[in-house]
Amino acid sequence: xxxxxxxxxxxxxxxxxxxxxxxxxxxxxxxxxxxxxxxxxxxxxxxxxxxxxxxxxxxxxxxxxxxxxxxxxxxxxxxxxxxxxxxxxxxxxxxxxxxxxxxxxxxxxxxxxxxxxxxxxxxxxxxxxxxxxxxxxxxxxxxxxxxxxxxxxxxxxxxxxxxxxxxxxxxxxxxxxxxxxxxxxxxxxxxxxxxxxxxxxxxxxxxxxxxxxxxxxxxxxxxxxxxxxxxxxxxxxxxxxxxxxxxxxxxxxxxxxxxxxxxxxxxxxxxxxxxxxxxxxxxxxxxxxxxxxxxxxxxxxxxxxxxxxxxxxxxxxxxxxxxxxxxxxxxxxxxxxxxxxxxxxxxxxxxxxxxxxxxxxxxxxxxxxxxxx
Length: 373
Hints:
globular
């Protein structure tokens, strides 16, 4: 208990500088118009996916802003924007205590974790000694895309959304083409080259993003230094805020592992997997996957504990990071977003959200073996 409490504080302390850096950079991107650009780009898609929302209704703007904040990894900004979007959608809801189609679709897209730049995961990997902290970027991108597509297909089936609409097809086709190109490129490489090229591409994309934000700040005459300081302050507050949660969760998980209970559970699953002659290395990262739908802080602690136990660059360590970046806390999002507007009948929101989670976890396991197996 004492050892894990000390470890949790040391990890949080080490995260401070990295979080200050990245949240400062993200704040520059926010003020330099990057989110506004994403908003304009995604506007036509959400108009087709949510036909019951009028064209100029403020809900669409709030939805796209929330999606954009999630895509950039701005968790603290995404949650209030998400609640605002849900409240705007509630003004169009004819049955205030029952979730509307638009509200369910919005929630499932949130639970599928559309995160393009999972900087927090990179920060944890860097703190725990990963050689290339962002080498999981491309695998996370592939897994979160599959999670989002699975969630969208589930909702489209339940709500009879026409996914063959030209606008929807063009967006999905564009995203699919981009990721298919990555898949084709990486499928031609051996595993060592794949890891090297993935790390190189990830680092190039991330550094290019920083340069783009800076250029945007120059173009829009944004004071980049002040924006960075504001974001860095938020990073410091974030690092400070997670200390008690990380201490509580890591101590609990440490005791759970020390008692032998976690090992017993994993060995039972391992025996079942071996019975079918399946590679069982993914089981060491399974606790993160099982915790993720219920608790973000719990899953984060499981990821950290897995990387500590097996190493940040081990197969379980990398897979836990990919799982963490490919799905969201379904039941937490359900409680916060629907609770904010007083919805009691959630209809098919939970089932579709869990389907997206299963798709994301399955994809995370698959790409982990592909890139790092």
